[in-house]
Amino acid sequence: MNGTLRLVGAPKAGKTPAQIERLREALDAADAVVIGAGAGLSTAAGLTYTGECLTRWFSDFVDRYGFADMYSGGFYPFASFGEHRAYWSRYIYCNRYMRAPGSVYADLLDLVRDRDYFVLTTNVDHQFQLAGFDKRRLFYTQGDYGLLQCSEPCHAGTCDNRAQVFVQGEDGLYALPAGMRPRMEVPSELVPHCPVCGRPMSMNLRSDGTFVEDEGWHRAAERWADFQRRHERARTLYLELGVGYNTPVIIKFPFWRAVASNRRATYACVNMGEAVAPIDIERRSILIDADIARVLSALA
Ligand SMILES: [Zn+2]
Fold first, then answer.
1. What region holds the Deacetylase sirtuin-type domain (predicted)?
2. Backbone angles phi, psi at 34, to 5 degrees
């Protein structure tokens, strides 16, 4: 994969049914399936930053600050730390503890449940676990909305944030607006602090240089490395779903390299508007420029 990379795109929309059929055949023929999942998969599953979720869970914040979507609110310089935490508690509730509304993850699990599979994902929304995927077959490389770490960080441990997201106060749960009077601020005594150094805890997300790779992360990385070793020469299907160009070095480029170096491997990419492959592996690529939800339900 050096020099200039020549890419080929997906066939025209009219060829999509034939491409889906090719993907079905590749799935049937594969000894192993590697799923590479990016943000587009959860979007296809109905996890969006606007719409019902925003009006249902964030109407007070929208009234006060005029946020147009949940995502931009996450970066707002709130006046107090407690307000920031209240916002993020609800955000995490909606994007980590609630299951995505669509059947996308369930359809995907049906396709691989009885197979030798592995999931590599940049998503931090826990939807694979919530859908019932075997967690020993998952590597969530960028962290998880459900984990807290030291903000410094002074040590490489993480802990579950359920207790913080679902804090029970006299007005109910901060994440769950109780009745019509949701709390917009988490009191300072309820902000979690590092058990080692006492600094505030932060989310375990790879957004800057402070990301902690905890024991679970390392175990998952080892299992992924082991899976790759075992399937280097196997008939492996690399199925890439909704991976964009934000962090192509984690899924997209390694998939292209793996398929280029194993003549029995197949690359499949389902992506609205961005289904491409290097010309070197064109004949072993199945490129589908279509809605992931539609493609998976057609396969299921
Ligand atoms: Zn600490």
1. 13-300
2. -110, 120
